[in-house]
Input
Amino acid sequence: MTEQIVRVRVSPDSRKESLIELKPNTFAVSVTETTERNEANTRVRFLIASYFRVPIKSVSIIAGHQSRNKSLIIRT
Output
């Protein structure tokens, strides 16, 4: 199993969704979901999983659960 750590800057409650790779393993993500009930975090995990073509259960937030700056680990 390989693991990869990515850093993400999240903009919740945006008008439209986007995922932009700023540099290797660093992304800017905008999601339409709010921060309530963990909706934005779940959507961020989904978008990162889609980008790396892995199941959503392979993507976990390891730092920044309540912050706009997050660290995620991707297990493949």
In short: Residues 3-75 form a domain with the Conserved Hypothetical Protein Mth637; Chain: A; fold (CATH 3.30.1200.10).
